[in-house]
Fold these 4 entries.
Entry 1:
Amino acid sequence: MGRITDKEIVELYWKRSEEAIACTIRQYGAYLMKLSLNILSIWEEAEECVNESYFSAWNQMPPDRPLRLLPYLGRIARCLALNRYDYLSAKKRDLSFSVQLSELEECLTHGNSTEQQYEEREVASAISTFLRTEDEESRNMFVRRYWYSDSVKEIADRYGVTESKVKSQLFRVRGRLKEYLEKEGYVL
């Protein structure tokens, strides 16, 4: 069977057809695994998150009817992987994703209250606005590092640059981001 559209896959979910999961695995399984593995660094844990992603998608459609399935599934998998990462970190397991989190720590707020959650959404929107002002390469490197959790080496290989260039470019973008957020009133 060839590639089918996101709309067709979503229709399968709405019809409660098990073929929806099979199509999702074929088209997006590798992406979801890479995303989860980049965060967790443990194959079995990542695999469990991916499987939970399929289950969550099954339970959320209907009522959800995403137009673009890849970001929809990516958001589910990323959330599950981050929750699993928090759980594993609490057990004092060493995971490489903590490096990426520490790189962004000085730019972001923390908290669990409703007000803090609202502010986090506002900060996320401000980050998106900021990234649109960056050149394409800087923006893509930032997203590859902090959304897809790619390693510095993977980013360097993808863009044909040195790891040193990636590190310095990310450092400069984080600096501009911090300055932008502070200017916008998100003193962190």
Note: The longest helix spans residues 19-40.
Entry 2:
Amino acid sequence: MAEGLKLILVAVFLLSVLLTLSISSCLEIDNVTGKHGSSRSGSRRMSVVYEKLKVINKPAIRSIQSPDGDVIDCVAIHQQPGLHHPLLRNHKFQDFPTRPSSIEARANRSLQSGPAHAFQTWHLTGPSCPHGTVPVRRTTVGDLMRVASPEKYGKKSKKTRLWVSQKPSVTDGNGHEHAIAFVKGGEYYGAKASLNVWEPHIEAPGEFSLSQMWVLSGSFDGSDLNSIEAGWQVSPELYGDNMPRLFTYWTSDSYQETGCYNLLCSGFIQTSESVAIGAAINPVSSFNGPQYDITILVWKDPKEGNWWMELGDGTLVGYWPSSLFTHLSDHATTVEWGGEIVNTQQGGDHTSTQMGSGHFANEGFTRASYFRNLQVVDADNSLQDIESVSTLAEDSDCYNIQSSVNADWGTHFYFGGPGQNSKCP
């Protein structure tokens, strides 16, 4: 009798375990699909996710575990994602571009506790990737599960920019808000600036905050805008955390179909063994404390015509082949520097997502976010100081910008803001 009761209790226990596992499995599928009870839909989505991962992630010669949770894969340079673009089928690598000639560097002596250069967190665990490889941040199942459409992971919305009047503006009803400085109307073959790095608060998962440089050409109110972009961004949806990360972007058709962030689609060719695009930047600036910045230079190589990106004082990250573009196959007509956020709180209170440091421009050094030493590259492949810039902010009560010129920082500006406040309800 006792043995029979024991067998019954064991059977009940095993049944409860199986039932729990079944419920957990269903809940996991529901979390993936967002549809309760739709296991078939969940299976289809997971199939899309894994197929996407096969395209993005390449075999690693070495993998480096970063302290921030990222895995950096050292991928053979000839197997990197960028080379799969149809226009690059027979692409020949360019190794040594003709760097723009520099004007005399400034010492930044007028400011106490001047900015130091930031670097990437994954370097804390060891050296760069081996020669012949490039570091690539590994994309995970979780990355693709956070977005509405895994197929479009890493792409911007199709209505990212709308140009109004004679000023570049991004007021498009899509929640994008900016505080930017810009020059336009000339022939620009690149641009350079140093910008400090912060960790702004992001209110909602679908929102982001970034500081970047845009190199632009084409029809600003049409579908043929060409754009090359680089800077740092905080995007919980894209990366799953609130850390500032180095990023790049490009498009040749006004964000319709071409281009993406970082190496999440083909196009950008990476050459650096030490810079991982999409990896976290560390350390970051602190309010009333130490400031850390990065210097970005983008320029068009006069010999091969490719658009190169340099980080710091000489680290070549990689390049956008000129064959990707239509208008930028020649030169840029507009350059912008500044901040951007996405506000998803349409019809209600303004988002509290911060731009830059989350403080307004007038608060100045160690409090506000900045861009310093703005320069452009001319037709002779020389860096030239900018005498003045135009500025634009859609709503200065939420985020604003103030430009200035001095002997140490040349043309520079402070920008940013907290978003929602008493004047920006």
Note: Confidence is low (pLDDT under 50) at residues 5-37, 107-112, 162-173.
Entry 3:
Amino acid sequence: MKVIVIGATGTIGSLAVQHMLADGHAVTAFSRTPERIGIDHPELSLVSGDVLNQSEVDTAVAGHDAVVITLGSKSLRSLIRSKGTLIVIHAMQKAGMSRLICQSTLGAHESWSNLNFFWKRIMFGGILRIVFRDHELQELLVEASGLDWTIVRPSGFTDRTETEVFKEAFAPTLKGLRLKIARSDVASFLTKQLTDRTYHQRAVAIST
């Protein structure tokens, strides 16, 4: 499969690129500075561009079988997730593409009930309030896109090595989660969605 990763130099994006290449996919890494990904592979293409530039995204997305969005920003006030995702959706619609996999966050919409006090009141209710609302808007845009989408909602990231011991697709009523997951597990799960249609047009939560 020919896949383009939007936000490929982020901590999740770069790992997702590695997992997809290992699974035999041809991958395009799209970001402002894709060379930062630091990977040399015959099936990897690097495309420099601005996700907020519609024409650049249109050109980059065309000709792929699937798009994986792993957008993020160091800024706590950035709206790049929703704004960039909308531009990607428009590009896919123009190109006649359908398969979209989007990384969001646990806590969005109905999964809010899975969170504990710390994440509800301090992180998403305070420090990361704008980022969280941006994720929620991002999800609404994906769900309204008419595309063949899957939204992945990971909990807080850790740098532990891949474990594959985590819960997935749990109900919003589930309590007592550790609310942590290894970045490599998230990347592996995103990669799995390229060929596994279990979560077609669903938002799926993952966490230990």
Note: The radius of gyration is 16 Å.
Entry 4:
Amino acid sequence: MKFKCRMMDAGVMRDFTNIVNTISQMAKYCVLRLTPDELCFNVGDERTPVLWAVFSQQYFFTEYVMSGVSEEENVIYLEFEASMFARSLNSLKATAKSVKIKLTNKRQPCLTFDIDLSSLSIDSRQCTHDVPVKLISRKEWPEHKMPDILEFDISIEIPQLKRLRHIVDRMKNMSSQLIISANKRGELTLKIEVDFATVTTYFKNLQVLENRLEEASDICAIVSVKKLAMFLNWDILHPDSVKCNILQEKMVKLTLDAGDYIKIHYFIPAIIS
């Protein structure tokens, strides 16, 4: 197996650092799936998918070389501590000139980050970080593949994440649970109910992308406010579109697209009332 890549664009390095920092806030460990065309970050919770983030390697890297376990299965799966991965990229915030990432063996498998800080001074400066990784065996791959996409009862566009984030952050201070609902009239509702109040926010005239139910009733699910708020951190990507998919009283799946190079799938299981 072989993997090495290089980033040189300051904006791209900033985006990549923001992405990894956001992932590190979601879970202690993360699985990275490498293919010739894509990087896929997978975060799970007790074998339940939480995040599947797919990134085009052509957007991020000026150099990208990988070869998997075989020609037929040209894939590599790595597991690592997300916070350590994120800390290794902190130097990129200081306008580094470039960074090389490669799979190495230093008594144990590692992702090695060679960061060129020459742009900060006349003298050449290098910074190297090693992040220990676990190579996931082929028999474990099915546990880390893209989950089956359920047929949801409704799929609706949602407003700007920045607006939603402002609202949900306030709701988070009042309740741990939130009711999210949508209908075929293009209405999305966020509601919390506590002993002393009921707070509801309405969004209207949204585009309904899919509706499996003929009746005009609302499709809803009760979810964790904290988990919803965590997804809203992805506003750093300035997405082109975000969709909310609801399976009645079972799951909310949020899908984010940023150009042709980033796609985020985020799963929030419903809370059974």
Note: The chain has two domains: 2-144, 154-269.
